[in-house]
């Protein structure tokens, strides 16, 4: 008996002894996702100063900023998580706030509620027994984004078993939802197309189905000709006015027709432009070879068959002054800015711009280019300052069809006042120049939404404008960005689009540096949500990932014609937001045929059940609801439609 007691006592003692304190800061924090630029700090606040909550200083902890998430896997034998939390005293804005949330195995274990700067730290002491998946989250309070610096002070686990392990996000299977296109032709893409009379015209009829295929176009204006085998229309834009054409496509499996309206007038981009931009894949590594490859892949993978058409070069095609600021070792990007006549000189990675656009055009695609109104671009390369007209003319001569015009370094040369006129000035100038060119050039403003650009972007000749900073640094907030962007929906219309930045799925680089492309950090559900939200917002649809590493999953997200149809709807409505709870909302887009495209959106960390009431959609009666990702009717519904929506998910339906 004594012996048994002794053994039991020993077991209890060793179990107690085995309980170990593991500081959170001792774990791999590469998986800590946070919002924006800069980086969360260990043992320091986000601003690099000591961790400090309402005057109380802490030696150990993590200084991050909302929105930030850290997922951990436990073995079920962790006992406790302890910490003190609060908004850091160094948060630059007095109104800074944050809400700490801890979720274990899909259940909310603890929340701090809304906390303000200056409020005393709150103690966290939670029981983790049996828990295997843990999320430490710092959220914004409401929509506020006041540089919400937030501290996990002295965060630590008491564990009896293995140390907790940080992970990227809960594992999810990559499920392909988009059905394979049928073998018979299906004509996709926009139903309306804007061009300017007499200008060079190029349009590849986006059509899925097996090749060879024969194309025809009834009612095609005489200034245009169609290549019956490739489906590429070239020539010069017809006389001013609307021209209704019927496209036909036929192969051994069947045939398809589609009405298409060419509107020759003053407005381009009657539907959101679609294509690819090199930035988030190749940064300052971009070359002529990569651009050609992107065009090849766009056709080969079928992206062009569902409507992607622009192949756009971003920054770093020009020369840098002495050393390329981001990659000082590449001498091929260093050289004179301009020749004796003032013409800009592409760097050695771009031996012949005209040959490059010819290559892209030969595939029926369009080419885009980038510059900045200041003396230098954002990457530190030659900008357009004082050569605006000359550069724009050269871009058109080279054959470019799209110009992205940044802002970087312009403030250095602009008048010191921060007036709206000063902000508009470079865009007014370039907008005027582009309108006078003998070529259709879509004008994309990239000044991050300054001066409420959505209010004046169209009147100065812009077709789309970035509404915020670079999304690459904030991929964890696609929902927040979508909600913010949707606030400007009143200005979205044919020829005028709010641009929340590029679709970054598949293989992308790290926007904060010059990282080589690697799998994007978003879960499969989040990648579908990305595309659903961008389609509902009628955002320009530019993929910006590595075209040479496109996999079937990424292509299924990018290339669902029914989802793209929502984006390309001729009405040009950008979805209205109907808020339901803190975590859930609807996005409702009116479609030209009277139907509604609806996103049931869950930005929260837990699955939710969401109901779209007809009254919120502005409709009545019995309606057919179609699941657009699966391209399947779900049945007839009366008054409302309810669906389970996963964490960070969007259920995208069309109600007709
Ligand atoms: C800015 C833009 C990006 C990209 C880079 C290029 O950051 O917002 O989209 O064009 O410049 O340097």
Characterization of this structure:
The chain has 656 residues and is of the alpha+beta class. It has 4 domains: 21-167, Sandwich (Jelly Rolls), CATH 2.60.120.1060; 186-264, Immunoglobulins (Immunoglobulin-like, Sandwich), CATH 2.60.40.10; 273-437, Alpha-Beta Barrel (TIM Barrel), CATH 3.20.20.70; 576-655, Golgi alpha-mannosidase II (Immunoglobulin-like, Sandwich). The protein has 12 helices and 40 strands. The strands form 10 sheets. Strands 29-28-27-26-25-24-23-32 form an 8-stranded parallel sheet. Strands 1, 2, 5, 7, 10 and 12 form a 6-stranded antiparallel sheet that branches. The chain has a 6-stranded antiparallel sheet with strand order 33-34-35-40-37-38. β25 (366-371), α5 and β26 (402-405) form a beta-alpha-beta unit. α3 packs parallel to α4 (353-362), α5 (388-398) packs parallel to α7 (420-436) and α9 crosses α11. The protein is globular, with a radius of gyration of 27 Å. The mean pLDDT is 94. The structure holds alpha-D-galactopyranose. The site of alpha-D-galactopyranose has 9 residues, from loops. The site of alpha-D-galactopyranose (GLA) has 9 residues, from loops.
